[in-house]
Amino acid sequence: MKGSNLGELEELILLTVGILYPDAYGVAVMDEVLKNTGRQLNISAVHAVLTRLEAKGYVRSAMSDPTSSRGGRRKRIFTLTAAGSKALEEANEVRNQLFSRIPKVAFQFQWV
Amino acid sequence: MGVTRHPPAWANRFLEWYCRPDLLEEIQGDLFELYERAGADNAGKARLLFIWNVIRFCRPRNIRKRNPHMTSSLLSVAMLRSYVISTLRNIRRNQFQSSVNIIGLSLALGCGITIFLLLDSYYNRDRFHAKQDRLYLFMNDMRSGDLVEHWARSPYLIGPALREAHGAVETAVRIQRHSFNLRKGNVVFNEPVWFTDPEFFEAFSYPVLYGRKDALHDPSTIALTKEMAIKYFGRIDVVNEDIQIKYSDSDKRTYKVGVVLNTIPDRSSMHFGVLIPMSEWELHAEPNKDIQWRTWASSTFIVLREGHSPGELSSVLAQLQQKQRAANDKFQIESAELIPMDEVAGRSYDIKHSLSWSNVPAAMIGLGIIAVCLVVLACFNFMNVAMASVSTRLKEIGVRKVVGGGRWQIISQFMIENVVFCVLAMAMGTALSAFILLPGFNSLYPIHVPFAFSSGITMFLFFGGTVLLVAIFSGAYPAFYVSTFDAVTIMRGREKFGTKSLLSKVMLTLQFVISFTTIVAGFVFINSSRHFEAKDWGYQHHGQFFTRIDNLSQYRALEQQLASNKHVIAYAGAESHIGFTMHSTTVAIGTEQLAVTRFEVGFRYLETMNLRFVLGRSFDETIASDARESVIINEAFARKMNWTDPLGKWFEFDNQKWFIVGVTEDFNYQEFYQAIEPVIIHIGRDDRFRYIVAHVAAGHLNEVSDALQSSWSKLAPDDPYVGKFQDDVFEQFFSSNRSNNKIMMTLSIVALSLALMGLYGLMSYNLTRRLREFSIRKIFGASVGHIIREMNRDYIWIVLIAFLVSGPLGMQLVNQMITAAYPEHIPIPVWPFLVTGGLMVLTVAVAIVAQLGRLRAGTAVDTLKNE
Fold this sequence. Notes:
The complex is a heterodimer of chains A (112) and B (867).
Chain A: H1 8-20, H2 26-37, H3 43-56, E1 59-63, E2 76-80, H4 82-100, H5 104-111
Antiparallel strand pairs in A: 1-2
Helix pairs in contact in A: 1-2, 1-3, 1-4, 2-3
Chain B: H1 9-18, H2 21-41, H3 43-57, H4 77-93, H5 95-123, E1 135-144, E2 147-151, E3 154-155, H6 158-165, E4 169-184, E5 187-196, H7 200-203, E6 208-211, E7 221-225, H8 226-233, E8 242-248, E9 251-261, E10 274-277, H9 278-285, E11 296-297, E12 299-304, H10 314-327, E13 331-340, H11 341-347, E14 351-352, H12 361-389, H13 394-402, H14 407-444, H15 456-483, H16 487-492, H17 502-534, E15 544-548, H18 552-563, E16 568-574, E17 583-589, E18 592-601, H19 605-608, E19 613-616, H20 626-629, E20 630-634, H21 635-641, E21 650-653, E22 656-664, E23 679-683, E24 691-696, H22 701-715, E25 723-725, H23 731-779, H24 784-821, H25 831-852, H26 857-866
Parallel strand pairs in B: 2-14, 5-10, 7-9, 18-23, 20-22
Antiparallel strand pairs in B: 1-2, 1-12, 1-13, 3-11, 4-5, 4-8, 4-12, 6-9, 7-10, 8-9, 15-24, 15-25, 16-24, 17-18, 19-22, 20-23, 21-22
Helix pairs in contact in B: 1-3, 2-3, 4-5, 4-14, 5-12, 5-14, 5-23, 12-15, 12-17, 12-23, 12-24, 14-15, 17-23, 17-24, 17-25, 23-24, 23-25, 23-26, 24-25
């Protein structure tokens, strides 16, 4: 298993799972990512990331009740675990810290 | 929202097949959801998206793991064993039919293996040289007059010049092919010899038995092959022995043997017996004692340094080409190319003067096609008989299904039976090829094809691939077909199958089409070979013989002897002799250059050879100008120039004008693979004569030529007698032609036997199936004729249709092959079709007669009693 680091896509999807609570499953996550970032992911990629996150312990999953759509098949609903939200917070913190250390000049220089 | 349209079923089934069961539901659910959503706008796009997603989901972690504790039905060793056992039992039960089947298949496979070995060794020659990947033949596109040809002959100076001019050239090895008289004690032969640069053994890897590979650096040493050593010395280790070569009467040189080579490998396209250092050629054999850019070498081989490609030489080549063009105005290099050594043999049919032997590709392709046809035919045979044989095994299939055998289990059982059959047939075919067919082939031709593949991989791929392909091709359809039967229908005895279905009729027709096509093709080919046997050579060649001579005194002596012999009708001397030697040159007609073949002959030569005149006259000794400036051309010359009246016209050649005094009918001066090109014949001085030709009265040919031969040993004790009947000049062509005939005959017979076996097997099964019906008919008074009609109604039609299709098809095939191989059009008579038709009727008749025994009156009762 890869370390407990969060990749960029993993972080994005982990956030989306949090946002969609309690209805986060494959297709919904894919749609939400498209809506928020404009990135068109393939459904298989979403599944791959979700299983990876579950293996790292950041999300847990359970099968939903069957619905009439999807040919009566159940969905796998993902929810954030405590470790998951902690990882998100940490990632956010690290980024903010690093962000605040960029000298102002760099920003000004960019605006010129 | 309900599912209105379904996603592609196969993609869905594929997903269910590969997907891990615990992940299937969510993945399938998501895919269906996406499909439904996209399907609302565009159904087609949704289907594509679904397929695409199924493929995208096919990643390692989604793929179901094989459970090691559950054995697949196909791979179970125990099952496999029992399948093989039941196959062998089946073979034993139907001994006769099974052996017919296996023999048919092994016959075809034997032919296939043999032809494959032949092609494999033919196209993989010259790969044994250590530097094979950087060894090249220097090939020129040579322009002479209006002709541009590929030539292996190259400027003598170009090899060394290339080595000097470009660093990428490691060595350049030239070869001059000649023939001289070799003598050791009393053993004298006129022997083909190769003069070559001392670096010969650095470029080529011919195996050395005795001596040092650098021996040729010493101009007084030569190399011999083992066969030559035995021929001249009677033993093999002859290093440091002396051997004499006669360059001319006044120039005889004695050499030491420096190297003895092992037999030239079968995989070499070039064959030689004697190697002499090139410096000796310059000193003794070069005719003008003056080497220039217009001097030729028979071949030049180039070895490049590692990591260099022939393309790097192009600019240097262009410069050298200029030198050659400046030096030779008759033959000019248009462009030059370095051909990799492993391609030389395969291309040599198209390269003039090539030292490699080669065959026309049409013959090779033809053989390949026939081999494939035979194997396919055997497969069809196998398939049709397998379909028919199912009839006797319906109950077995039904029982298997009833006790829970799955479709795949039945398919795999039948497939394994086929594989066992094929392996058996393959083993027999291999033995057939190794012990009968290949030795037979080798006895027909001067080449020797070993029973070996060019590489282990080739062998593995060939055998593995053939067994699998044949098994799948011939067994898949019956296996699948059988597995679809419904157990209940079988048990009720209602299953209909066999020759009733359209597909099996089509397959049966195909089988006969292939077999008759092969037979017709074989006969048409045989006919065209016969055509050459009977062909008019353009002159009357029975009753002539000729002898090689070396000088004028020999000519005078023989002339005297012939003049005094009352059986000699005519005789003449010649510098070049029709069918044996000739010269190529170009002549200038106004501004036009024309490539021609030149013969330089004595007076009365044309009369002695019985050449027929279309126009004008022959040479006349009493006309003074005839020896100087008269020339006779052939019809091809006149045709090429569009001359209706060529007499009196003139052209320039050898810096003088030549006037045409006669036109001969076209005559064959080389093997019949070559078209007849423009020819000029003119008078040469008698001190240039190399041949003496005599026309002898019928019945005295042997007597006169023997007398000449016996006086030869007194006349020229140093020289071997080289004499031949004119009838035999194309002997090589005719003997290979006859060999081709035998090969085609064999293949036709194999095709015919396959057809017969197939038909017989089929009828026999059909009869088994309907034995009860026929017995009842018989008992109620049906005549034998009636039953035969009943039995064969279906087949007769199939055979007829097959014949109508295969006749023109076979003719077309062979026609194309012949047009590719021979320059002239050969008329195709009717007899191949009649004979094939006759054979076909005979085949059916034999198959029927063989079955009749089972329908005798007494047996009908027995049959019914035993049912």
